[in-house]
Description:
alpha/beta
Amino acid sequence: MEQGLAGKRVLITGGTRGIGRAAALAFARAGARVVVVSRSAGEDGESLARELKETGDGHLLLRADVTDAADVRTVAAQVREAVGGLDVLVNNVGVDGQVWFAELPESEWHRVFDHNVTSAYLMTQAALDLLVDGASVVNIGSSVALRGRVRGVHYTASKAALIGLTRALCKELGPRSIRVNTIAPGLTETEPGAGLPPEAVERIVGMTALGRICTPQDVAGAVLFLAGDTSRYISGATLNVDGGV
Length: 245
């Protein structure tokens, strides 16, 4: 088991697919008690619930839209009733968007920021009284925030905002020994071929030192590191998980 994670209470948003799912299962296998929040569980949620059950009892799957303040308050109340408090919060909910800046509608700007930034603000603020002293908050960002991307100004800006949120919030929560960090994955294969044409994936792999694209399990490993005791003096950091792009 991962050192220091057995018995920990973990909340993961957007946890039924991709990075969130991999992290949820990794925490559960490390002996943690996992609460997963998803807007529409469906078959992904049902299969995750079965896999979590195989690791033991006490895991919970909640349905909520974490871009909605009322839903987030309900989640916080449900978590308090079910597990009492939290040792780890993973803000994983996020969406991508690809459009030229000149054609970017306001609605798309708000959609991306609501999912990638506002959800983390709402969920973390609602969880403040649930987080124990010494807890860990892990935000899932993107390495794009450090480089920029054409047809992704709004996406890049939203992920960069997470870095700023992390740097400032770690200072406010530091007196409680609560750590706040961001993980910045590279292109991650959360669906076959990462949802890109093969030539695009080949080009990105060609720029990556390790010669492959990121997997959800690669990111989950970093999440568990930042949640565990071995990273107890790391706060305000952005950890690149991009294979050396």
